[in-house]
């Protein structure tokens, strides 16, 4: 509303975050630099903040990503 102050937090912590971790292997060998993609359930296209997340694996094939919510 015009003339009113509004407090907005950008990049604030999600209310119900989920941590996902794992390891990417091929033929039993860790795959460094692999991209692991996550798309929020019920989201059409790439709309919405946090709807799409990408993690890149480390030297040992491991990744860690925090999703904004379950699903």
Key terms for this structure?
71 residues, mainly beta, two-stranded antiparallel sheet, 6 strands, 37% strand, elongated
What report would you give on this structure?
This protein has 71 residues and is mainly beta. It is built from no helices and 6 strands. The protein has strands spanning 18-23, 25-26, 29-30, 35-39, 52-56, 62-67. The strands form 3 sheets. A two-stranded antiparallel sheet has the order 1-6. It has a two-stranded antiparallel sheet with strand order 2-3. The protein has a two-stranded antiparallel ribbon with strand order 4-5. The N and C termini lie far apart (34 Å). The mean pLDDT is 84.
Short summary:
Strands 1-6 form a two-stranded antiparallel ribbon. It has no helices and 6 strands.
SSE topology sketch:
Elements: E1 18-23, E2 25-26, E3 29-30, E4 35-39, E5 52-56, E6 62-67
Antiparallel strand pairs: 1-6, 2-3, 4-5
Distance between the termini: 34 Å
Radius of gyration: 17 Å
Proportion of beta-strand residues: 35-45%
The unreliable regions are: none
Main-sheet strand order equals 1-6
Number of strands: 6
Largest sheet: 2 strands, antiparallel
Our count of helices gives 0
> How do the helices and strands follow one another from N- to C-terminus?
EEEEEE
Give the proportion of residues in helices: under 10%
Shape: elongated
Helices and strands: which structural class? Answer: mainly beta
Mean pLDDT: 84
